[in-house]
Fold:
Amino acid sequence: MNGFTYHELHTPNPDQAMGFYGELLGFAYDKAKSPMPYWVQKEVAGGLMQDEKPFWLNYITVDDVKARAARAEKLGGKVLQPTTEVPGRGWFAVVSDPQGAVFALWKDAAV
Structure:
């Protein structure tokens, strides 16, 4: 079954973002064991990472990331980041639809 499963905030100031969402919505974050600075959101399936430009990235679970990314291109979308493995966790690709809306495709390694 395909569906939105994970939400990730990219932000130039993680501390400020964690403070904002903590005060506004009661969100709390745990520092992840990751090669890059990453925080996992406790209340929902989500995370936060440092990036130059602030944006939310929504992940959609699919049966085959590589095949779905290729299909997105055939339908007029673009692959912005090809299929990438997150060791021990799964695979993802970042794509956009024909109008430029960006989202990520995800396949969990356990499924």
